[in-house]
Amino acid sequence: MIHVVEKKDLLIGISACLIGEKVRFDASNKPSNFCIHELGKHVTYKSYCPEVAIGLPIPRPTIRQIKKGDVISVSRPDGSGDVTEALKAYGQKIAKISEELSGYVFCAKSPSCGMERVKVYSPEGNALPSTGIGTFTKEIMEANPLLPCEENGRLNDALIRENFVARVYAYKHWQNLKASGLTKHKLTTFHSQYKYTVMSHDLVAYKKLGQLLARADLPLAEMSAQYILGLMTALKVIATRKKHANTLAHIQGYFSKHLQANERQELCEQINAYREGLVPLVAPLTLIKHYLLQYPKDYLTKQSYLSPYPDELKLRYAY
Fold first, then answer.
1. Nearest 5°: CA angle at 85, between 82 and 91?
2. What is the pLDDT of residue 2?
3. So what's the pLDDT on residue 5?
4. Cα–Cα distance measured from residue 125 to residue 11, given in angstroms and rounded to the nearest whole number
5. For 229, left (φ over 0), alpha (ψ -120 to 50), or beta?
6. C-alpha 30: how far from its chain's center?
7. CB within 8 A of 229, min separation 6: which ones?
8. Which mean pLDDT values do the consecutive 10-residue runs of the chain (319 residues) have?
């Protein structure tokens, strides 16, 4: 593990209903098993329900996104009780104080908290294409483009779940780095720890980030801003088996002078088995970590790719 993040230090924003708070329109909740019982062991949540925060009661009449012309408003189905501006204002308020957050989990399909594909209706009540974004969520994401965000429904997908958690931990590492006082040396060291992580997501970004840090004409503030935007954008790309296998092959090269013929063959077989979908990613990684204990490589030991988050989450067992 390249860095230690304690639970009390890793703060994630979350829709209140997802951790069991009965704040929905019908006084119910939508508890997320993953958020509560798995990720919740490793992070601290800060919960928000924008609808309650702006004064709507529990229970309450339903609200929806209604599109008239190019304008989308949020109100009751009959158009009364418009809360669009109140939700926007609350979103802007939370966005200003959300720098302490390292991620956010939103409630899917909610007119206030949905991250994407929110239902939109015409003033007459006809369903339009579900292209809406929760009014509160939109303010949070636009004000914090680096913040890793997901919604509970998408977290049921093993690849998306792993990707989100990895981004959260990478972003927290960056936040800690900035808080310690950023220098060019620290930035370069940080990048060296994420080289194989980026390689497994986006090879083009891997090359561009290296080129960026090699420039001598950029002030540190501008370079670091471009760097973290490039990194977090690259990490949004879901890593494929082919990209992981390519990254594992690069790492394998560090042991070429140490492994016996049968050991090299075993590692190659594990990497190929993963590439072909026969074993999960944890299989070749476990073997690499075993060889790393036998033949320590300081550069590899510090790679975030090998331990991007607590192993107890077992996120690499599913794909």
1. 125
2. 42
3. 63
4. 39
5. alpha
6. 20
7. 145, 146
8. 61 98 98 97 97 98 96 97 98 94 98 97 97 98 97 96 98 97 97 98 97 96 98 97 97 94 96 97 97 95 97 94
In angstroms, the CA 72 to CA 39 distance is: 34
User: Which residue pairs from 249-254 have beta carbons closer than 8 angstroms and sit at least 24 positions apart in sequence?
Assistant: 250/196, 250/199, 251/196, 251/288, 251/300, 251/303, 251/305, 252/288, 254/297, 254/299, 254/300
Question: Residue 148 has which token pair?
Answer: 């890793």
Distance CA 242, CA 244 (A): 6
The CB-side HSE value for 40 (13 A sphere, CA atoms) comes to 14
d(CA 146, CA 226) in angstroms, rounded, equals 11
- Burial class from Cβ neighbours inside 10 Å (0-12, 13-18, 19+) for residue 58 reads middle
The predicted pLDDT at position 3 comes to: 46
- Predicted confidence at residue 9, as pLDDT, reads 84
